[in-house]
Amino acid sequence: MKIGIIQQANSSDREDNMGRLLQKIGQLAAEGAELVVLQELHNGLYFCQTEDTEVFEQAEPIPGPSTHLFGQLAKEVGVVIVLSLFEKRAPGLYHNTAVVIEKDGSIAGIYRKMHIPDDPAYYEKFYFTPGDLGFHPVETSVGKLGVLVCWDQWYPEAARLMALAGAEILIYPTAIGWESSDSEEEKLRQQDAWVTLQRAHAVANGIPVVSVNRTGYEPDPSGQTKGIQFWGNSFVCGPQGEFLYRAPEKEEVIQLVQTDPTRTENVRRWWPFFRDRRIDCYAELTRRWID
User: Fold this and answer.
1) Which among 52, 79, 192, 206 is least buried, having the fewest CB atoms inside 10 angstroms?
2) What are phi and psi of 4, to 5 degrees?
3) What CA–CA distance (Å, rounded) separates 237 from 210?
4) What 3 state SS string does the chain have?
5) Angle at 156 between CA 248 and CA 190, to 5 degrees
6) What is d(CA 209, CA 80) in angstroms, rounded to the nearest whole number?
């Protein structure tokens, strides 16, 4: 499978952000991409640095303007696209939602972010209701896509459930970076943990992982922090965790990466983790804590 990834620095000009994405998707399609993955909340700034009710005006229904716009392009160039949108589901009910657009422009499926963080500069619980669709791959013309979103990438349970449901690849639209008060050593520890854990999902489940992050600096509108420097480093790894591509930290990237779907079956024959799982002994995983 030929996968296109777009690592982009965004501004407050949403039309410009989307226009650049459309151009880049078209470029990747011309280079042979079958699937293009965008970063988390790609239309605008990462607005969760503050809690502001006016921001809810940015939300949109699904289907809606963005699915129509990107759907038209998907149909025109014949590529599957993974979007990440601020969904208005109903008055007072909003989600952080990934949408998979089929190459005919239709909506193949959606995934609502299940794990919602609430940390300084990442006040997502103010905006997003936790997802209620569970962990189910989206079936497309390029395979079964296990789409998850950002904070979900820290949870091995989410990756496992997607794999058990038949996902052939794990996909993580992401917005993660550094808050400036952290030491350089702490910043490196955070980034290394982020990369290591997602590679571990690939290894433990024997499938490729695609993680597409933002890049660039976005200030805190409230001035309470010094903003976020998104750390880029978008990457694609194979089913043994091997890097197929890793982006730099501070550069925008348009990259085509090729994966080999047949390797999943071969790797699972070599490393039969699914065969040896002790499903009779895992019931306590559904408990919050074991006293």
Assistant:
1) 192
2) -100, 135
3) 7
4) CEEEEEECCCCCCHHHHHHHHHHHHHHHHHCCCCEEECCCCCCCCCHHHCCCHHHHHHCECCCCHHHHHHHHHHHHHCCEEEEEEEEEEECCEEEEEEEEECCCCCEEEEEECCCCCCECCECHHHCCCCCCCCCCCEEECCEEEEECCHHHHHCHHHHHHHHHCCCCEEEEECCCEEECCCCHHHHHHHHHHHHHHHHHHHHHHCCCEEEECCEEEECCCCCCCCCEEEECCCEEECCCCCEEEECCCCCCEEEEEECCCHHHHHHHHHCCCCCCCCHHHCHHHHCCCCC
5) 40
6) 17
Asked if residues 232 and 26 have their Cβ atoms less than 8 Å apart, the reply is: no
The ranges assigned to domains in the chain are 2-286
pLDDT digits (tens, 9 = 90+) for 186-204: 999 999 999 999 999 999 9
pLDDT tens digits along 236-275? 999 999 999 999 999 999 999 999 988 999 999 999 999 9
What's the Cα-to-Cα distance from 23 to each of 20, 26, 28, 290, rounded to whole Å?
A: 5, 5, 9, 51
Signed CA dihedral, 74, 80, 83, 88: sign only: positive
Class of domain 2-286: alpha beta
Report, as residue numbers or ranges, the catalytic residues. Answer: 40, 113, 150
* Residue 122, amino acid: Y
pLDDT, position 179:
81
Contact between 256 and 2 under an 8 Å Cβ cutoff? The reply is yes
57-69 confidence digits (pLDDT tens):
999 999 999 999 9
Residues 112 and 148 sit within 8 Å (Cβ to Cβ)? no
pTM of the model: 0.97
Nearest to 233 by CA among 266, 198, 203: 198
